[in-house]
Amino acid sequence: MCGILGLLLADENEFVNQQLFDGLTVLQHRGQDAAGIVTAERRRLHLRKDNGLVKDVFQSHHMSDLRGNVGLGHVRYPTAGSSSCAEAQPLYTNYPHGICVAHNGNLTNTEELAIYVRDNIKRHINTDSDSELLLNLFAEEMVKRGEEVGETEDAIFGAVEGVMEKCSGGYAGLLLINGIGIVGFRDPNGIRPIVFGSRVSKSGGSRASSTMERAVTVPDTPGKMSKVGRKLDYVMASESVAIDTLGFSLVRDIKAGEAIFIDMRTGDCHTRQCHRNASLSPCIFEYVYFARPDSIMDGISVYESRLKMGEKIAQKIVRKFPHHDIDVVIPIPDTSRTSALQAAYILGRPFREGFIKNRYIARTFIMPGQETRIKSVRLKLNTIKSEFAGRNVLLVDDSVVRGTTAREIVQMARDAGALKVYLASAAPPIRYPNIYGIDIPTQTELIAYERNSEEIAEKIGCDWIVYQDTEDLEDAVRSSASPTQPLEAFDTSCFSGNYVTGETIGNSYFQRLHKLRNDSAQELRRNMSAFSIGSITEGEGTPMQSQNGCESVQNDKRVSQSNGGRGCEAI
């Protein structure tokens, strides 16, 4: 899972760097592995990316070099490819024009695409990242369409159509086409999220002083922005929280199979449906876990949907255990707090904070290796013993993936003096891998794989566990939708095993996925940095990348005089 952000400011003399930094900071929950920003300054591109958090990757001397009024930002954790900073984004190709991509999601036909790119269009792919494939496919489509109709919106939308015809999976992406504009697009099933916003530019009129005034000033649809000229600033992001933070008005989500093109030459905004059979099925795990509660996705408040999840799971507990002896409801921080609060209300039991979280430890289910995850739980959480001692405790979590974290937390509750420990999951049992950009591992590493609730409870060490029903989860999210924007379907593949793009458990794709994602394979990649992912799947090694993959690809050999060469990677 990744976070993407694109900004285009109407004033060519205004710099976008600080706003990209601020936006990425509020999207940091979507990826802590790497961060990157690219900006365009009158056809000169400036790029800085590296492994690490946003606050660590970008120092003041980097920010001063990231000049320009248009740019892309990206935060990443790897689900395809490796953790090398060569695969940190944005990625760049110089032909045509100079194009950069920031991509969230996962392509499921990468093996076929890699062969096509290598053999048919003769483009070199230097990483194991599916994002680099997507970038080169778009670039090649731009070459073809540009020869036919010139550098118009028809060429750009035609290139997106060509990409969507060839690529399978769940993805949302942003493209910066040097000297032309930025493009946002979403896969034909709308699995991965991306939203669009705008505001009146400082140069295009007085900036409105309130949200209400901005809503009146800014056109309410992209279609009405097609003839505004250089009067509006534009933003596209994975979540609406970035749009809010930067002072923009949320216009709407990019639709499934749709692309939005903002022409930096004119300031106009254009939209087009780029896939004939598009049908919205957003990933329901965004609402369960990944998205911030203050975000709105496809017209649905993440916070409101999590309240409903808590209500539904509490109602199931009452049905299953009408004479339960729960004394207190305690959330497992942080994502489950909203659901736990509502569950406590429905159950008529006090809601208490029993765990204190160290906010400087990364999310444990993302962490590599079981031993690392087990150790990290104790570093991340500590108990308030008075909330557990002598009580029957209901712990509420958003989901249970491997069970490693849950097992440690249950033991921590017992060590703190709990008499009985019950566990409620706001999500159904996760029995299948996610193939659309969330690093939910291979089947055999999932605690719910081939186990029922009683066996899972025994494995975790709790007295009983209750999971949300898939139908209740869908109802919880759907009931929070606006009547004008109803949601009919979701991607629930990690619960149901039904993949909206047609993959079938057991086929060759899942066999390759297991080889890449299981803990042993990931440990091998960490210990053998001289080999690429291909060495695991095919037994062939590739040369070690210089500087841990961060060797700059430059056509500008000038050294920054302001900081002794410590500036951004020159493209």
Could you explain how this protein is built, in words?
With 571 residues, the protein is α+β, with helices and mostly antiparallel strands. It contains 19 helices and 22 strands. α5 (130-149) packs across α6, α10 (302-320) crosses α11 (337-347) and α12 (370-380) runs parallel beside α13 (404-415). It is globular and about 70 Å long.
How many strand units?
A: 22
> Helicity range of the residues?
25-40%
Q: How would you characterize the largest beta sheet? A: 8 strands, antiparallel
Q: Radius of gyration, Cα only, in angstroms?
A: 24 Å
Please report the number of helical segments. Answer: 19
Strand line-up of the largest beta sheet: 11-9-10-1-4-2-3-22
The assigned structural class equals: alpha+beta
Average pLDDT metric: 87
The coarse silhouette is: globular
Percent strand: 15-25%
N- and C-termini, Cα separation: 26 Å
Provide the low-confidence segments as ranges: 205-216, 529-565
Question: Quick summary of this structure?
Answer:
This protein has 571 residues and is of the alpha+beta class. 32% of the residues lie in helices and 20% in strands. The chain contains 19 helices and 22 strands.
Can you tag this structure with a few keywords?
single chain, alpha+beta
What's the helix and strand layout?
Blueprint: E1 2-8, H1 17-26, E2 34-41, E3 44-51, H2 54-57, H3 60-65, E4 70-76, E5 91-93, E6 99-107, H4 110-119, H5 130-149, H6 153-166, E7 169-177, E8 181-186, E9 195-200, H7 211-217, E10 232-237, H8 240-245, E11 249-253, E12 258-263, E13 269-273, H9 285-290, E14 296-297, E15 300-301, H10 302-320, E16 328-331, H11 337-347, E17 355-357, H12 370-380, E18 381-383, E19 392-397, H13 404-415, E20 420-425, H14 453-460, E21 464-467, H15 470-478, H16 493-496, H17 508-517, H18 519-527, H19 534-537, E22 569-570
Parallel strand pairs: 16-19, 19-20, 20-21
Antiparallel strand pairs: 1-4, 1-10, 2-3, 2-4, 3-22, 5-6, 6-7, 7-8, 8-12, 9-10, 9-11, 12-13, 14-15, 17-18
Helix pairs in contact: 4-5, 5-6, 10-11, 10-15, 12-13
